[in-house]
Amino acid sequence: MTKLIVVIEIAKGKITGITKECLTVAKKLSEDLGVDIEGVMLGHGINDLAVNATKYGIKKIYKVDDAQFAGINILYHTRTLEELVKQFSPPTIIMAGASLYGQEIIPRLAARFNSAIFASVTSLVLEGDNLVGIHPLFEEKLLGTMSADKNQMNFVTILGGNNPEAEIDESLSGEVTDFAPVISERDKRETFVEEKIAKVSVDITKAKLIIAGGRGVGGKEKFGIIHETAKTLGGEVGASRAAVDADWVPYDHEIGQTGKTITPDFYIGCGISGAIQHLVGMRNSKTIIAVNTDEEAPMLDVAHYAIIADLHEVLPELIKKL
Amino acid sequence: MNIIVFIKATIDRNAPLGPDETFPGDRDDKADVMTNNYDKHAIEAALQIVEKKGDGKVTAVCLGSDMADKVVKEAIAMGCHEAFRIENSEARVINFFSVAKILAAAIKKIGTYDLILFGMQSYDYGTATMAPMVSEFLDLPTASWVERISLNGDKINVEKVIEGGTRTIELQLPAVLSIASSGDFEEPRYTSVRRIMKASRTKVPVWEIDKLEAGALDTNVEFTKIEQPPARMEECVVFKDDDVPVLIDNLLSALKDKGLNLGAYK
Amino acid sequence: MKQITKIFKTFNFSKEEQEQNQMILDMVYELAMNEIIEKEQDWDEEGAHFDPATKQVSYPSGMMDLYKKCQENDLFAIIVPEKYDGFGLSYTLWTAVIELMARASLAFSMFFPSQSLSIEIINNHGTAQAKEKYLPLLSSGDAIGAMAFSEPNAGSDISAVTTKAELEGNSYYLTGNKIWLSHGGAAGTNIGLAVTDKSKGPRGLSAFVIDPEIAGDGYEVVRIEEKMGLHGSITAQVALDRAEVPKENLLGNENEGLRLVLGSLASSRIGIAAQSAGIAETALQESINYANQRVQFGRPIGKHQAISFMLADMATQVHQARLLYLNTARMKDNGENTQIESSIAKYYATEAAQKVTYDAVQIHGGYGYSREYRVERLFRDARVLTIYEGTSEMQKTIISRGTQARAE
Question: C27–B196: do the CB atoms touch at under 8 Å?
């Protein structure tokens, strides 16, 4: 019988949104395969989280709970996951969200097992004896269908922003079992130095209205108009990687592959050209409005409405009108 | 300090894509082939490291058909000291897993290296799998989405992107890194006339896949079809070419027609 | 870009040269279209600066940063002989570079034609010391090259120059007023004409490399012009007051300056034709984009015959301008005298740029008259093309005299 294992990623003491999206894909697959979903969770002091994870329909959680796993060390994680996966004979499916973590750990594991990888697929379904996934190419201008024998080892990363997050169901429960960490001397070639993470002052994933700014805003002071607009209209401030990297706004406002995935009622993107890394985090917003001077910007491919003008003229006027 | 940078030939973002575009290296029009933009950040990182250290060599390696010679030469014209291409005509190998094996085998053949760099992803496949897979095949530590680097003897400190911030880790050299398009290497240098002259006089050595001892190149997952995504149902409504207040009025009334109220959250 | 490449393929470049040309043009295109074009509007609005107190001139913000990138990319070294730190590449390539720069910003492209003219004049007519000193500086771009020919009473008729040069010991001392100096006050070399023998009239003029560092207080910017267009470029009036020019900075022989200068202008006219093709190409592209988006009477205006035929005429004129400048540049590379062809290229291309930018404004309608739209600046900038480096009327005179003289 196929083993279906989801690597549960934790960030800031929570199961990540992209893991929940992955669980949605896993749930459908588990029904088709007629098997349970199992999970593996690595970290430190994560018992409550593990118990909580079973409420997403995970029947068994392998919990690696160790002080050495307080921070993420790719080599430690690979080694320990290797030991776990070694216990299972094919067919086995190992899935994770295609987060930065998932995109580092899963290819590495797949290579270690000399096995197939469905890298960055938006879906994974059973078709006869094959697993079939869709992988976007050329920044989603084309879609590739990938297919592999379901009876082998298959490693999978699920792209964020394509599936709804799995919901918690309090009536569900499962088993949590400890799995001892395995670290070899060679794995100590990676050591943790420090982490700079924005103090969570805001959770933009809950906002109904997001005013987001990008490189086109033009500077830290100029970002003031984004804050002002958000404040006046009762929304939250979002940002592209370019804007947080330039230190115009803290990291916890970042939307996209390396930030948050949001689905507000309104998203207003100001001076954001719309690199694919940003679009995956916001394109499922209900109404998308682009404010941009460039009509050719990729943002307009996902936007419902666009104003082609300077955001520094548009936003003050918008505030006035509302 | 010997640095190997992997570069990829891909298609110009502005060039039209065929409905079954699978072989980015083999286009009729050579002008459509260009260096994967993300890889230029990796070249920039390699050059900066060598410049800062004051010694070392940057070798660019490209797996591709002869269309990719242009990309290899561009790497030299940006400042790479050496470059070669691994022949992959008619895109014989496109499977991620096999490509990673070939690249790892090429590194083993090169023999001496301290750092192996990749761009953070490719424009065409965009899986970001190469750095972790190659690092595994070579049994080396790795970090992806690296924004900043500092050398520290036989170790390297890298600041990499994580969700909501950055993490700094120390890796024992040699190591494999994928370089982010943000951070210290955000603006890759241009080619220069001097280096272009050098590049055009450089004969690009070509390696054969079969001589690399890459091992079995099984394809255990395949692309069975490539197609265009369904057309977007709803076109973007564009307001432009008018005074800003008018544009906003037009937007607000369009929203109102749909029963949407931007002012509902105050 | 592909239009230029196609024409290059018809020329007798070796495979290696074709590859070099393509890589260099790709680099220039990226620089021009990614960075220079972004600043073009700001430069137009800000304009060049002159501080009357310090007599210092400066370019608008950010322009020198991009100039530095051109230096880093060795662009000014393209046509400089290898002996003087250059690459000895073709004038054809150089003019194509000028076109690409002019597509992004005519003001920025002003750094190029005067640089090559300075390089050519010094290389052909300079003393060994002058070549050793100035060609490497011009090649690296550390010195900007300027032309100091025009005077209040000497425009098209540059033989009417009255600035006088007096030889005392090992130096000449120049006194007079020079106007319309592009880069005046910012340039490292100024090639100027001055009277060395008043009795001989036009045959008593000599050409010099005026080096502001040597001239010191003898070289002073009086003001800069407020112009219709080209706001980002410096156009200065300079007062020479016993400006010292060492003897080794005399170009050619004494009293042969006029012929020397007139003989050299043919090359720079090809560069002006290239600028014209560049600005016209941009006007055409802006018009195509606009015509495809702007809907009137139920369809894009580009589909209306009136506009679509205008676009056809514009495209034809741009192509002709490009063929003319590239072909003339190639002739020059082949060692031909291009005196007449250069004038034909300059005359045709600069007039075409008037018509194309005029039509671009027309296609844009009311928006074309608005400062927010690029075509408004293109129209203003382009206007100078038929005037500087010899007016259209001067070109016609040269063309007519030349063709009649060589009538078969």
Answer: yes
